[in-house]
Amino acid sequence: MLQGKRPAAAAIGVGAALVMVAGGTTACGTGDESANPGFQGCQADPVTCNSGERADGGEITWGLDGSWTGWNPNTSAEYTSYTLQITAPYWPTVGHFDQNGEFALNRGLFAEEPRLVNENPMQVEYALEPGANWGDGTAIGVDDFIYNWYARSGSEALCQACTPAAATAAQIASIEEGSAADKIIVTYDDDYSSSEWKYEPILSNPAHIAEAAGYDWKDDPAAMGEAEAHFSKTVPTWSAGPFEVTDAETGDYAVYEPNGDWTGTTEVTLDKVTLRSFDSVDSIITELRQGTIDGANPTSISAENVAQLAAEQEIAFNIAPGPGWGHIDLNTKNEFLSDRALRTAVFQSIDVEELIARTYANVQSDASRKLNHLFRNDDPDFEDHLTATGQGAGDTGLAMSTLEEADYSWDGEGMLLDPEGEKVTLNYRYAEGSDDRQTMADLIAFNLADIGIDVELKPFPVTELGPTLAASDFDIINYGWTSQPVIVSSANQWWGSDSSTNFGQNEDPELDALLASLGSERDPDKAADIANEAVARVIADAYVLPTVDTPVAIMVSEDLVNVRDNWASQQRALYNIAEWGLRAD
């Protein structure tokens, strides 16, 4: 509940990353102005809307519409929207993208923006903020950069049995101190020349904590892997952000109080912030009505939820396009879906426009089908390589023609048989707890039945999203990715053959070559061209079918200020938690 008061102070924010979400549908727009006193200006000025002077002190509770299984978003199983939100108050980042897509440096850790000091090989210098430490007085230093390199390398020679969500550090050649201990030089392999070098994640878990726990991480790859597992299961006793954990139960709640060792220039005014997991948006709205929680920014929202919020004069809310995009993935290692022709026919039979009409359009009348995996439909670099293929068109006739050309047939009951005469059966996985996800599952099953495929619907608890994906325990799955306004790391994470978050296990040497070219192109315009070639290749593989850029909601008590959503950050509203406060009288 809201408590206490304190005078205002200026602020900056921290945090950004790339994650998976369960998916679902939301609305775009706002409720009545009388129901949204804090967010009227968000469309015109999304970076500063709901600003205000902060009172001195206070305690708030923030709701999450899902849960988390561990504390280490380095790992693929824990690289979820909820893990990134729960770790946002203390996690070290280079910076974040704001609501205008502009990059803002994390001044709590870095004295200046990363600087390119050499082009061949590429060398980047990081200047640490004087006094930057892990919340226990231990200075952040070169070993912490090296620890992150090993954890995110994807190399068994550096981190045995590690499963990084993305091997973002795979092309690092060395890390060493520069002219002083607060200057760190990262040197990349000769073939690294990314246009997005400034945004590489170069810090994560603290090296000295791993050493104190008894792990010889620097010299023993097995110990390095064990250290990563330790960070996953251990509630953090450290912090590189404005808050530190003082009490927590994994998957249920975490209590934060100000980190006295934080070197950020923002004065933290809140005395305590509790992040708590809830099983549904309905539960969150009920708690908001009762005043037992103070805000939330769920990953999905229904038309009924919007109506509930509009009726509450004490709740400010806003609904706008968010960071996520929904998609349907196929497991290419499935005995049937290993055939590209079948994958193509499956996608051609799915009617994405109908999916949107029956779900998203209930709350966003102008919701449109997403036609590019990396660029939004209104992006200057957008290209449509999807429509011409018929994928997502719900064209049963086209799908059946694709199958006939590949020697598929149908038995007397209309069931699809593969070229060997085997009956094609598939399962469809999705997170339970959402009427819209259930509707989409039913519609997709009907679409596939039209071409003779028997589909078993297999929902799972939303808390099992990460493990289900990590185990590739699906034939067809519907979920969402959220990402920063970057393309290089996203494309490699989603589609690289050796990426641990390439959950459908697609292996395509031509696509890998495009991704390698994308990662070594320094010119942003040329990188965009290569990215569109990669999108075209993913479509040719019939691997991932995008559905829609998912709008999202934020809802808060009228007494909260400097709290706003951020589509460009997977941490959503928590990207600037240091600025949060209670409205001054």
UniProtKB/TrEMBL annotation:
<dbReference type="Pfam" id="PF00496">
    <property type="entry name" value="SBP_bac_5"/>
</dbReference>
<dbReference type="GO" id="GO:1904680">
    <property type="term" value="F:peptide transmembrane transporter activity"/>
</dbReference>
<dbReference type="InterPro" id="IPR039424">
    <property type="entry name" value="SBP_5"/>
</dbReference>
<dbReference type="GO" id="GO:0015833">
    <property type="term" value="P:peptide transport"/>
</dbReference>
<dbReference type="GO" id="GO:0042597">
    <property type="term" value="C:periplasmic space"/>
</dbReference>
<feature type="signal peptide">
    <location>
        <begin position="1"/>
        <end position="27"/>
    </location>
</feature>
<dbReference type="InterPro" id="IPR000914">
    <property type="entry name" value="SBP_5_dom"/>
</dbReference>
<keyword id="KW-0732">Signal</keyword>
<dbReference type="InterPro" id="IPR030678">
    <property type="entry name" value="Peptide/Ni-bd"/>
</dbReference>
<dbReference type="GO" id="GO:0043190">
    <property type="term" value="C:ATP-binding cassette (ABC) transporter complex"/>
</dbReference>
<feature type="domain" description="Solute-binding protein family 5">
    <location>
        <begin position="111"/>
        <end position="499"/>
    </location>
</feature>
<protein>
    <submittedName>
        <fullName>Peptide/nickel transport system substrate-binding protein</fullName>
    </submittedName>
</protein>
